[in-house]
C-alpha cells in the first residue's frame, strides 16, 4: 500500500521531469528554426526573448 504523500511525491517528480523534457524539446525546435536565419537561441539578446 502506498501513502497519499508518496503518491503526491511521485506525481510531482513525474511532472517535473516532463516539464524539463518539454523545455529541452522546445529549445531544440527553436534552435532548429533559428538556424535557417543563421542564428541560435544563445545569440539572441534577452530583450528579444522577453517580448515573447
Provide the descriptors you would attach to this structure in a database record.
single chain, 52 residues, mainly alpha, 2 helices, 71% helix
| H-E string | HH
What oligomeric state is this? single chain
For the largest beta-sheet, the strand count, sense and barrel status come to: none
Class per helix and strand makeup: mainly alpha
Radius of gyration from CA coordinates: 17 Å
Helix content: over 70%
The unreliable regions are: none
Distance between the termini: 46 Å
Shape type: elongated
Strand tally:
0
Give the DSSP E fraction (strand runs of 2 or more residues). Answer: under 5%
Task: Estimate the mean pLDDT confidence.
Answer: 92
H/I helix tally: 2
Fold and architecture overview:
The chain has two helices and no strands. The protein is mainly α and 52 residues long. The model has no long low-confidence stretch (mean pLDDT 92).
Fold topology:
Blueprint (H helix, E strand, L loop, with lengths): L3 H32 L10 H5 L2
In short:
The protein is mostly helical.
Amino acid at each position: 500500500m502506498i501513502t497519499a504523500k508518496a503518491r503526491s511525491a511521485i506525481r510531482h517528480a513525474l511532472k517535473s521531469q516532463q516539464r524539463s523534457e518539454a523545455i529541452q524539446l522546445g529549445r531544440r525546435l527553436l534552435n532548429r528554426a533559428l538556424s535557417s536565419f543563421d542564428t541560435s537561441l544563445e545569440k539572441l539578446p534577452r530583450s528579444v526573448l522577453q517580448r515573447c
